[in-house]
Amino acid sequence: MTDNTPHIETGPLEINQALLKKRNAREIRFRLYGLSAVLTAIMVLCLLLTSIISKGYTAFEQTYILIDVRLDTETIDPKGTNRLEDLAAASYKSLLRAALREQFPGIEGRREKRQLYGILGTSADYDVRDAVLDNPKLVGTTATIAVKASDDVDSYFKGYISRDVPEDNRKVKDLELIWLDTFQADDRIIKKFNVDFFTNGDSREPEEAGILGAVIGSLYTLAITLALCFPIGVLTAIYLEEFAPTNRWTDIIEVNINNLAAVPSIVFGLLGLAIFLNFFGLPRSAPLVGGMVLALMTLPTIIIASRAALKAVPPSIREAALGIGASRMQTVFHHVLPLAMPGILTGTILGMAQALGETAPLLMIGMVAFIADIPSSMGDAATVLPVQIFLWADSPERGFVEKTSAAIMVLLAFLVVMNAIAVILRKRFERRW
Amino acid sequence: MIKKVLTATALAGMMMAAAGAAQARDQIRIVGSSTVFPFSTTVAETFGKTTGFKTPVVESTGSGGGMKLFCSGVGIEHPDITNASRRIKASEYEKCTKNGVSITEVKIGFDGIVLANSKQSDRLTLTKKQIFLALAKQVPVNGKMVDNPYQNWSDIDKGLPNSKIEVLGPPPTSGTRDAFVELAMEGGAKKFESLKALRKSDKKAFKAIAHTIREDGAYVEAGENDNLIIQKLEANPKAVGIFGFSFLDQNADKIQGSIVEGAEPTFENIAAGDYGVSRSLYFYVKKEHVGSVPGIEEFVKAFTSENAWGDEGYLADKGLIPLPAADRELIKNSARGLTSLSM
To answer: Hey, is the C-beta of B42 within 8 angstroms of any chain A C-beta?
Structure first.
């Protein structure tokens, strides 16, 4: 049979080379397409991040004005008790205003006085109070205290308000500029890290607004979501994958779960409104309800991911366990589930990250609201991070522009951490066969 | 199975607990207009800070959505107060009465609706008639109604700039849009004799013409986010935007309000009633909840104090245009006395 061996001629080989060249060129082109797709994606991401960070980093700083306040014993502690409660209850606003008038004598008229007081933030008196409470010995002396500037003054020092604009159209008027210049010439304008942004709830004043309420709300909501959808999702996946017979019913269930994963999230919000609020009478705007709605939304994701993880465990593991006499339940819980766990956890964390960024279903159950108090339980009114971003983005005050971007940065940080945990879990515990 | 039963029981238990917690609500709940939202929240925040009561929760649902929630009944699961950028409609009032809700109306001030463009372009000087001609779907030409033929502002009047009509405004769900078509468009339509006659003979047909905004791309629905409209105006100096006065007030360094019927949209002009495209803002209080939800009376008092809604009050800083002093006094008394609204 040796004469059957095809012998190669030079002609066809040349043709092959042309073809080869073409194929190589095609491959190079394909790689370039792929590379340019990746580069475009990276560029867009960079653009997004640069725009967010360049707009938002200033929100982590707050302008303070150093003011010499005469901490008059008469006003603060007339009885001389020196008790902290009495010190806390005093009216520091009047002291602060007196200090401003002293700094700029000759300010007469209601309008001008109002303007003068307006360069300080609405809760600047709390800065004075806190300074006194920190050091009660200050009472009776004149102390230099850093108090928060108003949002417009803050914007001016951050360069968002230009001096060149005609006065009528400028939020900081000429008179205020003169005062601010005086302060600046005395080195009385300082910038500090904006702690309040992380410790305050929402506010209508940009300089007071903080993100803590939304962060706590998000944590409560996610805790409820996790507590509900992790056990239900994993048990569903185990049952469907390991115990359920394959018949028309399980097929229908499977199709339905896959469909649910693609249902727009607003639909789950409507469902929550109809069932949890109207039927069960649960409180509006509560993280409890928000968590339940998001759990419904996340369940399909977790079930699908868990089933995939269970499916990836080789049958030989199950057969070996059954072969040495383990029951099916023992097989699942002692052998299959531990091996599938990294995959299940990854799926769960990705589902949670998706739930963290969701606003649409929360709109229907009243979590898109102005809530200044920081929630202290799962039944309290609360909002979540993405909703806070939405609300700030919609506010007319210029100071909220930087707050919006800063809140996006905080949300992104949460998402990055969650996704990083998912990656670490997978890398560390994943078994390959 | 046992686990599922356990989970179900736990769930049910949680719901009971939450429902129990909701039995006694100690926090005022406010819903309604997105235009009143900035003012309502400011009062809520100050109220929470200066009194012992919890800060009220304010939801921005739109005037219509707020009324729907507000009128759906009495009980802690329903809101206590609703904000509106228009007066309550007769149909809504009926629904409220049917569900056992009696209400107190509080008018809080004015809001101007402005047409504004970027400072890089010239300020527009418009009449309501020109606004109607620029934005209506059908306009009268030589006594006949035809699809709006005007593409450039200069097509309408030689004095207007020779640039494409491009207006960014709110969608139909918005109260601002309702007020705009009613005040500006209808006001303009009335200037035509033929339409004026139609208004007398067939009010519905007139409204259909006056209230329908063109859909050929000259009017762009820009969503409810007014900040977005302002950013778009900056990027496109030829475009004109429609939004509430407070956004013009906060962005006066970048955009300018068009003069309508000879009046510039300024704080003073709107307060004096000289600027034609302005509307009243309201909130409505559910009287049945006074006493069962703590703080409602005090909240009304805080809202109607000179410190809040007065000429120099903190709401004026946020862009609310105060009522005349005499009206304030009158409304304050009726609001604090919780006078029932009857229609």
So the answer is: yes
For the stretch A174-201, pLDDT in tens is 888 989 998 989 889 999 999 999 999 9
The structure tokens listed for B49 are 């800070």
Q: Which of residues 277-316 of B touch A (CB under 8 A)?
A: 312
Say if CB A410 and CB A213 are below 8 A apart.
no
CATH class in words for B112-278: alpha beta
Amino acid letter for position A180: L
Helices (H), A104-190: 110-117, 124-134, 151-157, 174-185
In terms of phi and psi (left: phi > 0; alpha: psi -120 to 50; beta: otherwise), the region of B78 is beta
Helix A124-134 with A92-103: angle, nearest 10 deg? 110
Q: Which residues of B23-61 are buried (b: 16+ CB within 10 A; e: fewer)?
A: eebebbbbbbbbbbbbbbbbbbbbbbeeeebbbbbbbbb
For residue B206, how far is the Cα from the chain centroid? 23
Q: What is the C-alpha end-to-end distance of chain A, expressed in Å?
A: 43
Q: Where are the beta strands (DSSP E) in B78-213?
A: 81-84, 103-118, 125-126, 138-141, 144-147, 167-169
| Percent of chain A residues past pLDDT 70, beyond the cut | 96
- Tell me the domains of chain A and their CATH numbers: 62-192 (no CATH), 212-429 (1.10.3720.10)
pLDDT at B35: 84
Q: Give the separation between CA A214 and CA A185, rounded to whole angstroms.
A: 39
Spatial distance between the Cα atoms of A261 and A237, rounded to a whole number of angstroms: 14
The pLDDT assigned to A433 comes to 61
Predicted confidence (pLDDT) at residue B22 exceeds the cutoff of 80: no
Please report the pLDDT score of residue A49 as a whole number. Answer: 94
Q: How many CB atoms lie within 10 A of CB A192?
A: 12
B chain contacts of residue A117, beta-carbon cutoff 8 Å: none
| Spatial separation of the C-alpha atoms in residues B139 and A164, rounded to whole Å | 44
Average pLDDT taken over every residue of chain B: 86
Same fold, B26-110+280-336 and B112-278: yes
Q: Are B113 and B278 in contact (CB under 8 A)?
A: yes
The pLDDT-based confidence of B19 (bands split at 50, 70, 90) is: very low
Hey, CA dihedral for A290, A294, A296, A302, is it positive or negative? negative
* Residue A57 CB partners (closer than 8 Å, separation 6+): A406
Q: Which CATH number fits domain B26-110+280-336: 3.40.50.2020, 3.40.50.720, 3.30.565.60, 3.40.190.10?
A: 3.40.190.10
Closest in B38, B48, B253 to A395, CB measured: B38
In whole angstroms, give the CA distance from residue A98 to residue A70: 8
By DSSP bridging, strand B57-59 and strand B278-286 are unpaired
Q: Where are the domains of chain B?
A: 26-110+280-336, 112-278
Q: Are B314 and B334 in contact (CB under 8 A)?
A: no
B21 — pLDDT class (breaks 50, 70, 90) = very low
Q: Does B269 touch chain A (CB under 8 A)?
A: no
Q: Give yes or no for B8 touching A (CB within 8 A).
A: no
Backbone angles phi, psi at B26, to 5 degrees: -115, 20
- ipTM score for this prediction: 0.78
Using alpha carbons only, give the angle B309, B312, B316 rounded to the nearest 5 degrees: 55
Return residues 155-174 of A near B (CB < 8 Å). 161-162, 165, 168-171
Whether the pLDDT of residue A331 is over 80: the answer is yes
Residue in A165, A204, A394 closest to B42 by CB: A204
In tens, the pLDDT along A128-150 reads 888 888 888 888 888 899 999 99
**Does the distance separating the beta carbons of B58 and A366 come in below 8 Å?**
no
User: For residue A305, what are its two tokens?
Assistant: 């991911």
pLDDT of residue A227: 95
The pLDDT of residue B20: 45
